[in-house]
């Protein structure tokens, strides 16, 4: 970090701060300027409360240099992490495609959808059995019965099952059916859930909280990594802004930004990110064009009658067309699909 002293404060004030830095077993270097003095702190200061220096006499500003996340950082590991479950590969030049309905509703709905997903060449199948819903009166998911249906879809198609786990108590249960555990946007900062998933051996898809900053997102991933689970994919699913023409605002720049900061793969969710089916295919194309590491797309055999998120669900036909388009773009940018 860099500690900037207030204008006109004495050399002694800077030396006092430097002594405090040394007490924390970090190395201070004082730069005496014409207008103000600055202390450059060398060493890993992430375990210290860096902001506390702001309360010291004469300090104007404290500027952290090291990102607080460590294991997630590219500084720690420069080669890309490939998250893999069955044939689904996300990252390191592999474009992992996951598609399926928002919610598991019935065996017929899941089987019909899974067969189309398989035929399209995608390797992952999504479907929520435990659903986090804004209203307590909305459909809450088929729970374990839904997980059994998903496992049957994997049995027939070989697709890797991606499904949400909402509480630490359900991690073992969901992990016994799923290939990838999804942590939803609402739970991105549920630290007990992050730790529980970090302690198991299932790959994880961590969705960005609707109001989380990039640093908060990466620190949430850090919780999982710190517990031992290194198979973490990040999912940009849109954030809340003042804008109302879409359900959320989908920042595609997150892909390039995150790829510059972390070795973890980045998946785009254009369904929750826009909330409208007609916006989903172009956002899929755009995400592939900028070399996102994966897509997770909501699709349904009969969107008008879906139990959740029908408005943003592609029909099976439109999904197949979208996949064809993505394949052309993936080839052009050198991603394996
Ligand atoms: C979902 O994937 O259906 C879901 C609930 O997503 P999110 O957590 O991003 O809202
Ligand atoms: Mn949904």
Integer average pLDDT: 97
Sum up the overall morphology in one term: elongated
Q: Distance N terminus to C terminus?
A: 42 Å
- Share of helix among residues? 25-40%
CATH topology of the largest domain: TIM Barrel
Biggest β-sheet: count, sense, barrel? 8 strands, parallel, barrel
Order of helices and strands: EHEEEEEEHEHEHEHEHEHEHHEH
Ligands present: phosphoenolpyruvate, manganese (II) ion
Which architecture of the largest domain would the CATH scheme give at its second level?
Answer: Alpha-Beta Barrel
How does the helix and strand content classify structurally? alpha/beta
How many helix segments?
10
Q: Class of the largest domain in CATH?
A: Alpha Beta
Outline the fold blueprint.
Elements: E1 2-5, H1 11-23, E2 27-32, E3 37-42, E4 59-63, E5 83-85, E6 88-90, E7 96-100, H2 107-120, E8 124-126, H3 144-157, E9 160-164, H4 171-175, E10 180-183, H5 191-198, E11 204-207, H6 214-226, E12 232-236, H7 253-261, E13 266-268, H8 270-274, H9 280-289, E14 294-298, H10 316-333
Helix pairs in contact: 2-3, 2-10, 5-6, 9-10
Bound molecules: phosphoenolpyruvate and manganese (II) ion.
The site of manganese (II) ion has 5 residues, from loops.
């Amino acid at each position: 970090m860099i500690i900037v002293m207030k204008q006109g404060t004495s050399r002694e004030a800077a030396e006092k701060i430097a002594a405090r830095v040394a007490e924390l077993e970090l190395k201070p270097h004082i730069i005496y300027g014409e207008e103000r003095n600055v202390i450059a702190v060398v060493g890993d200061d992430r375990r210290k409360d860096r902001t506390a220096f702001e309360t010291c006499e004469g300090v104007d500003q404290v500027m952290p240099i090291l990102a607080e996340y460590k294991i997630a950082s590219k500084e720690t590991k420069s080669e890309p992490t490939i998250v893999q479950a069955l044939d689904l590969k996300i990252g390191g030049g592999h474009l992992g495609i996951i598609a399926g309905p928002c919610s598991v509703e019935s065996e017929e709905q899941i089987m019909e959808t899974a067969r189309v997903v398989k035929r399209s060449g995608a390797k992952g199948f999504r479907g929520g059995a435990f659903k986090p819903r804004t209203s307590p009166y909305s459909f809450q998911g088929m729970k374990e019965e839904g997980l059994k249906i998903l496992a049957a879809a994997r049995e027939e198609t070989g697709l890797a099952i991606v499904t949400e786990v909402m509480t630490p108590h359900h991690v073992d249960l969901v992990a016994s059916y799923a290939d990838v555990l999804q942590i939803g946007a609402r739970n991105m900062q549920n630290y007990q859930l992050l730790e529980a998933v970090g302690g198991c051996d299932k790959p994880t898809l961590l969705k960005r909280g609707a109001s989380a900053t990039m640093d908060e997102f990466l620190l949430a991933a850090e919780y999982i990594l710190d517990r031992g689970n290194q198979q973490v994919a990040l999912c940009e699913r849109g954030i809340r802004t003042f804008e109302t023409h879409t359900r959320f605002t989908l920042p595609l720049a997150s892909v390039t930004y995150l790829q510059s900061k972390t070795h973890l793969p980045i998946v785009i969710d254009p369904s929750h990110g826009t909330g409208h089916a007609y916006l989903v295919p172009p956002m899929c194309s755009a995400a592939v064009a900028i070399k996102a590491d994966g897509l997770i797309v909501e699709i349904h055999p009969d969107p008008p009658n879906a139990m959740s998120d029908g408005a943003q669900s592609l029909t099976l036909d439109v999904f197949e067309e979208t996949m064809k388009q993505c394949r052309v773009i993936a080839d052009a940018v050198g991603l394996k699909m």
